[in-house]
Amino acid sequence: MFRNREDAARQLARLLKGRQWQHPLVLAIPRGGVVTGAVLARELGADLDVVLSRKLRAPGQPELALGAVSEDGKVYLNAYAQTKERAFGDYLEEERRYQLAEITRRLKRFRVVRPQAPMADRSILVTDDGIATGATMIAALQVIRSHHPRELIVAVPVAAPDRLKEIRPWCDEVVCLLAPEHFWAVGQFYRDFSPVQDDEVIQLLGEFAPVVA
After folding, report:
1. Whole-prediction pTM value?
2. pLDDT level of residue 112 (50, 70, 90 thresholds)
């Protein structure tokens, strides 16, 4: 059990310290992942930026992920959704557009304080406060891989063990503190799992924004 996101990130950072990194960059999935990412970036002497992806919700079951859409518009569908894709008809396209609109809204706010960081030939650590379905993480990894990083590492405090298996082929390494067999939701492993708002994300990104001469 973690006290909060900062506590979890400090414990995670201890596993990562001492490595040799190539111009390291922490890419966090908003919103909660940015709190985790900011601690990792400070502890590891890395830059911080965001990578955006959003869950594609099942019709009538918004807590169920069919997959995710990334900030470049590409869609990742999980195995269940792939078998049912025809049955969903136009729903998936409508949901993709809806989530892309939210990604665009957030990017407009975040990029005012933090222009997109270059990714090529860098050590990239992708983080969130935890992984439940894995869809948003995989969608994010697809985007990052297209920028040709030197190495691509997923670093999270907690994840469902079966989802870690799905994520491993999309990156070079996974570093995870907890992968409990009885996993229902990320929040069950935090005493304080308070919602994170856009303003807090903007403040954290501003602390890592490059200085413009």
Report:
1. 0.93
2. very high
b/e burial code for range 1-34 (CB count within 10 A of at least 16 → b): ebeebebbbbebbeebeeeebebbbbbbbbbbbb
DSSP type of residue 2: B
At 121-152, the pLDDT tens digits run: 999 999 999 999 999 999 999 999 999 999 99
Place of tokens 């406060």: 129
**Contact assessment for residue 36 and residue 155, using Cβ atoms and an 8 Å cutoff:** no
- Is 192 within a domain? yes
C-alpha pair distances (Å), 65 with each of 31, 150, 196: 17, 30, 21
CATH number, domain at 47? 3.40.50.2020
- Give the residue among 210, 213, 212, 211 at the shortest CA–CA distance from 49: 210
Count of structural domains, the chain: 1
Main-chain dihedrals φ then ψ at residue 177, nearest 5 degrees: -75, -45
The identity of residue 96, as a single letter, is: R
**Phi, then psi, of 186 in degrees rounded to 5:** -60, -40
